[in-house]
Task: structure prediction
Amino acid sequence: MANKINIKGLATEELAEIIVKEGFPAYRAKQIFHWLYQKKVNSFKEMSNLPQDLINLLESLFHLESLNGLAQQKSKDGAQKFLFQLSDKQLIESVLIPNKENKKESNKERTTICLSSQVGCQWHCLFCASGQRGFKRNLAAGEIIEQILAVQRLSGKTIQNVVFMGMGEPLDNYEQLMKSINILNDRLGMNIGARKITISTCGIIPGIKKLAENPLQVELSVSLHAAEDKLRDYLMPVNRKYPLSQLISACREYVKKKNRQITFEYLMLKGINDSVDEAQKLSQLISDFEAKVNLIIYNPLQAAQHEAIFFPSEEGAVYSFQQILKKNHIPVTVRYSKGQDIQAACGQLRGAYLKSQVTLNNLTSIRDRL
Ligand code: SF4
Result:
């Protein structure tokens, strides 16, 4: 496997180019895509409509797997967290989140996957377990795609929505991120609509600008968590590089260019950023363009792990904050993090595993089930 390429990181055109050079017709690349993403086969041998010499070529050039399932946790609310080991032994996490469909009359469940885009993260946000352990490396597109295939296989669920909100800052890994999104979105690939894919960023301005130029209509979500620089500098060191005024003007430009709304994520931290005054400042900051706000209730397990630096806001504070945004005509929703009884927030399970706080005895081992 050492010199072989992960086939799941290739777009159809790239795959076609490789096999055409070896004397096979380009349409075979589409067939291979079908086997990989629709039939979800685990070996090239199963691609039964390919000639044997093409199967031999694929086996000599490519490999199909680079993730090793290490552990799985299930929450009472249905969220499931997966810990994977990459071929260089680094660890990443993916989370499966069940959601009821929004329509009142429908009782259908939609499934969202939260993907990692990097091993670790360079930004050290104070409330985030991934940021506390530093940055190791970017994930390749194939490693991003494989998280979905592996989670589908292990959970038996079909995934409708994808959010890049797991470990890492996706816009710091722009090229591989977009490559993976193109494969996810490809009709012959996973065929997931661009509007069902959300990129969540801590506010990387060059990445937001590049995304504004990209024709794909993916959703963009920006983590704000504070409405003034002093507090944001403290909570999110990325703000020292990309301060609020510049970030908000990049978001305004994005909305203008793409003609799409942006979602701002706002983690409600008791006594830190949840005052009426903060709600007014947030309203002023984002009132002149199409944006909505997600107020996120801080996961108490995270609070415990951070030696109680932060606590979830009181219900009353969340309500008052929400009312001020509504009064200022800003669409707002309140979101409770799923998987509060497991280590479902970004980087928590990996952190616990590395510190040996959890072992495979109190998790479900998924090795051999992949
Ligand atoms: S919240 Fe996101 S950007 Fe901040 S440290 Fe964690 S992974 Fe990185």
Observations:
- Residues 84 and 92 are 5 Å apart (CA to CA).
- The mean pLDDT is 88.
